[in-house]
Specification:
Elements lengths: L1 H25 L12 H11 L4 E5 L5 H7 L6 E5 L8 H26 L6 H17 L2 H8 L3 H25 L2
Antiparallel strand pairs: 1-2
Helix pairs in contact: 1-4, 1-7, 5-7, 6-7
Length: 178
């Protein structure tokens, strides 16, 4: 049984990786990521004031009452920052993404193999894995909208990507894990 779910997880990880590629290209994710106006001036201000990579929340106010008062006159948001000169490789990032997708698919294959005996038919099995994907997305994506103002469209795309990704994994599992 270990061999079946492990092999199914490997294949599902490959499927999930390519599904992610399709959704990012098909849904035009870049339409929801806006360019920074006057980028040169903004970059200059960032480089002059932020020296370390990190996740920055602004305004930097943890007291709720003070934060509510500050956002009346100051913008609020979240910024991931990586200083200039930090090495970047698209190939390496794609490799890491593949490892993430593979890990998710292996975990999903294991859960599927545990639940499959209780799931009476293909519909229940596909629904189980699809909802597992949606659950994973709901666990964090709506919080990004709620707290940090991520666009609703980006959240919806993430939910679709996760749900359909779960369905595709379920199809692989249904074929390979009996």
């Amino acid at each position: 049984m270990l061999n079946k779910w492990f092999n199914a997880g490997i294949i599902a990880g490959i499927v999930l990786f390519f599904w992610g590629t399709i959704t990012h290209m098909g849904f035009n994710i870049e339409n929801y990521i806006k360019p920074i106006p006057n980028e040169k001036a903004v970059f200059g201000a960032l480089q002059a004031n932020i020296k370390e990579p990190g996740l920055y929340f602004y305004p930097n106010e943890m007291d709720s009452a003070k934060l509510e008062a500050r956002v009346k006159t100051a913008p609020r948001g979240i910024l991931t920052y990586i200083p200039a000169g930090t090495p970047f490789s698209k190939g390496q990032s794609l490799g890491v993404q593949f490892a993430i997708d593979l890990s998710c698919a292996l975990l999903a294959a294991f859960l599927y193999s545990m639940a499959a005996p209780a799931l009476k038919n293909l519909t229940q099995r596909l629904l189980f894995i699809s909802l597992l994907g949606v659950f994973a997305a709901i666990a964090f994506l709506p919080a990004y909208w709620n707290w940090y103002g991520f666009p609703r469209e980006a959240i919806a795309i993430g939910l679709i990507e996760s749900g359909v990704g779960g369905l595709l994994m379920g199809l692989v599992f249904a074929k390979l894990i009996k």
